[in-house]
């Protein structure tokens, strides 16, 4: 990367960073954290007591830190397109551990704009994925493909037709709603809601502005 280009890139590490760079970056981060929050590592060393389960997309541009939290506050589950697959063991175990063991009192599904999984389906590029190398990804994205077909009429209205960014944002919102409805079918979540021990929210993160907005789920 040229010096000029690097001036515009605020990232800590790059594609050519090696292990030493990671370790040095960790030392700087650790030192900064200790200066800014002197009690943090002592507190975290005593165990975790998160208040929130954050379910988001694996996209590199956002995570629970978009609400300014520190390590120890949020238990996180990220996957492609922030799916809540209630037949998936990882998802089921995550919900049970966060709600029944860690006793979080908030569960958030946070989707985002410009989601690659959603755009791949919207641009009909799912079929172009290299079959042998991405057969699981193809299968996985079937859920988003279904979502697209379920909302075909709306996507083809004048407001959205021929506007990929608008369609993509709409589908990101509809995906949060769909995954939220799935969350509500989970027994662990149902029990916690019945006990009033959790609140559940749907959110959308805007990668262009950093803003988080509420989704009416
Ligand atoms: Zn995404």
Strand order of the largest sheet: 2-1-3-4-5
* Ligand list: zinc ion
**What is the second-level CATH architecture of the largest domain?**
3-Layer(aba) Sandwich
Structural class: alpha/beta
Question: Roughly how many Å apart are the termini?
Answer: 43 Å
Report the sheet with the most strands, covering strand number, pairing sense and barrel closure: 5 strands, mixed
Principal-axis shape:
globular
Q: What is the typical, i.e. mean, pLDDT?
A: 95
| CATH-assigned homologous superfamily of the largest domain | Carbonic anhydrase
Q: Segments where pLDDT lies below 50 for 5+ residues?
A: none
Describe the structure.
This protein is α/β, with parallel strands linked by helices. It folds into 2 domains: 36 residues, no CATH class; 168 residues, Beta-carbonic Anhydrase, Chain A. Helices cover 45% and strands 14% of the residues. A 5-stranded mixed sheet has the order 2-1-3-4-5, with helices on one face. Strand 4 and strand 5 form a beta hairpin. The mean pLDDT is 95. The structure holds zinc ion. The site of zinc ion has 7 residues, from helix 5.
Give me some keywords for this one.
single chain, 217 residues, alpha/beta, Beta-carbonic Anhydrase, Chain A, 2 domains, five-stranded mixed β-sheet, 5 strands, globular, binds zinc ion
Compact summary:
The chain has 217 residues and is α/β, with parallel strands linked by helices. It has 2 domains: 1-36, no CATH class; 48-215, Carbonic anhydrase (Beta-carbonic Anhydrase, Chain A, 3-Layer(aba) Sandwich).
Secondary structure layout plus pairing:
Blueprint: H1 3-7, H2 19-36, H3 40-45, E1 52-57, E2 74-79, H4 89-101, E3 106-112, H5 116-122, H6 135-140, H7 142-150, H8 152-155, H9 164-184, H10 187-194, E4 199-205, E5 212-215
Parallel strand pairs: 1-2, 1-3, 3-4
Antiparallel strand pairs: 4-5
The chain binds zinc ion.
The site of zinc ion (ZN) has 7 residues, from helix 5.
Organism: Kluyveromyces dobzhanskii CBS 2104
Catalytic activity: hydrogencarbonate + H(+) = CO2 + H2O
GO molecular function: carbonate dehydratase activity; zinc ion binding
């Amino acid at each position: 990367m040229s010096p000029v280009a690097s001036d515009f890139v605020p990232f800590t590490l790059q594609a050519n960073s090696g292990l030493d760079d990671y370790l040095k970056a960790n030392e700087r981060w650790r030192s900064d954290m200790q200066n800014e929050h002197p009690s943090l590592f002592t507190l975290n060393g005593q165990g975790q007591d998160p208040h929130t389960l954050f379910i988001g997309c694996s996209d590199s541009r956002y995570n629970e830190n978009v609400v300014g939290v520190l390590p120890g506050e949020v238990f996180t589950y990220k996957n492609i397109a922030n799916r809540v697959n209630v037949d998936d063991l990882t998802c089921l175990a995550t919900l049970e551990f966060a709600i029944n063991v860690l006793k979080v009192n908030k569960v958030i599904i946070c989707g985002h704009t410009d989601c690659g999984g959603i755009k791949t389906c919207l641009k009909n590029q799912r079929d172009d994925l290299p079959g042998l190398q991405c057969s699981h990804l193809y299968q996985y994205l079937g859920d988003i493909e279904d979502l697209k077909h379920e909302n075909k009429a709306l996507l083809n209205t004048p407001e959205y037709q021929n506007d990929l960014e608008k369609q993509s944002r709409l589908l990101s919102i509809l995906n949060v709603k769909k995954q939220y409805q799935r969350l509500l079918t989970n027994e662990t979540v149902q029990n916690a809601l019945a006990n009033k021990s959790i609140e559940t929210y749907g959110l959308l993160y805007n990668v262009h502005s950093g803003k988080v907005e509420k989704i009416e789920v």
